[in-house]
Amino acid sequence: MNSPKLRPLATLVLIVTAVVSACGTIESAAQADCTSIGWQIGSKGYQDCYKSRLYERKLDYSLPPGDKPSPSVI
């Protein structure tokens, strides 16, 4: 089971799992923000709150305008 061919595959699976599990964090945080202030899931006010909080959180995690990511050394 310690095959050199399995190591890259196992690494790839771990990376994909980490990326996919991280995708829900912004959405769940926006949901938690709106429910913590009293909005009921499914109500009109909740939908508006969720959309605006999701937009704000995506802006928080995005690159500034004109900033380009630099290539990794790794």
UniProtKB/TrEMBL annotation:
Keyword Signal belongs to the record: yes
PROSITE patterns xrefs: PROKAR_LIPOPROTEIN
Keywords noted in UniProt: Signal
Signal peptide bounds: 1-32
The keyword Signal is assigned to this record: yes
Protein name: Lipoprotein
